[in-house]
Amino acid sequence: MAVRINPSILSADFANLERDLALIATADYAHVDVMDQHFVPNLTIGLPVVTRLAQVSPVPLDVHLMVDDADRWAPEYAAAGAASVTFHAEATQAPVRLARELRSRGVRAGVAIRPATPVEPLLDLLDEFDMILVMTVEPGFGGQPVIEGTLPKIRRARQAIRAAKTATWIQVDGGVSRQTIGRIAAAGADTFVAGSAVYDAADVPGEIAALRALAEPTVSA
Ligand code: DX5
Ligand code: ZN
């Protein structure tokens, strides 16, 4: 399994997004948090900004939609140029239909679950999704500590993916840092979002490399 490090531009300088995207050229994806102030109590950016970010980013965009009515909005982010679109299971009427729609538009389809949402309903449907995002914090803000009780869901998802022999990625988002990435990787994640850890670092490329080096021995074992 490969390690993917996806810095979250939620912790970048919103007045200098192009400059801050250039800092993460050694990452795998740029993680873009879209929030609507309804699904979560925060408001970030929408389609016009994401469209421009896709045009200037040195790496593909991994869009994390924290919005209500994902069935309506997620396909628009595929059209905006995202490489991967992740919607929340709690915000869709029809996760399988939506994932199929996204895939038909040529993007990777991810499904996210909040800390208190069980992973089990997804485990019989693994081949319908390219990625499961296990939120390790309540979505909405950067800089929160990992909720340790979410880690067993990562373990169970990894077991199910092994058993089903699917290529589903497991992404974690929230509280990923040098201190936590080892045990999150050990639980079975392979795709790591890190916002404050990367963008608060004095040496951003160095931080990406450090996180990758800490996760790699575990993920490829
Ligand atoms: C939070 C967002 C995250 C956020 C993570 O709801 O989905 O992507 O940027 O920030 P850190 O890595 O600081 O916990
Ligand atoms: Zn996110």
Summary of the model, kept short:
It is built from nine helices and eight strands. It has 221 residues and is α/β, with parallel strands linked by helices. The structure holds D-xylitol-5-phosphate (DX5) and zinc ion.
Give an overview in words.
The chain is of the alpha/beta class and 221 residues long. It has a single domain (4-219), classed as Aldolase class I (TIM Barrel). Helices cover 37% and strands 19% of the residues. The protein has 9 helices and 8 strands. The chain has an 8-stranded parallel sheet. Helix 7 packs parallel to helix 9 (204-219). It is globular, with a radius of gyration of 16 Å. The model has no long low-confidence stretch (mean pLDDT 98). The protein binds D-xylitol-5-phosphate and zinc ion. Residues 8, 10-11, 31, 33, 64, 137, 139-144, 173-176, 193-197 line the site of D-xylitol-5-phosphate.
